[in-house]
Amino acid sequence: MSNVGIVIVSHSPLVAQGTADMVRQMVGDEVPLAWCGGNGHGGLGTNVEAIMGAIDKAWSDAGVAVLVDLGGAETNSEMAVELIGEPRAHKIIVCNAPIVEGAVMAATEASGGASLREVVATAHELSPS
Fold first, then answer.
1. Residues 11, 41, 90, 124: which is the catalytic one?
2. Catalytic residue check, 41
């Protein structure tokens, strides 16, 4: 059985890459992982096409949790999921949780074979009440 994939979407490519590096150091190659960030011109922002590419890279039949940092990342991630469409879209959940802590904990959970819902729930447990 394959593990849930993790995608990190940040407005900053440095934040996204740094978070991915931290995840990789914690769980190794046990979890499909991808990241994207920035607007494609070197500035802050997110990009629907880049998010779709990251989802493809981290794709797992067990599903993909997409962790986002700010509202624009969440909106663009939701658009990416819509554009990907069925049958894969129902296996992708956009997760608005603390991006660094959420990604590390979600990946740790995924590395143990947890389901997509369990992985997302773990990330959400870190959100402030």
1. 11
2. no
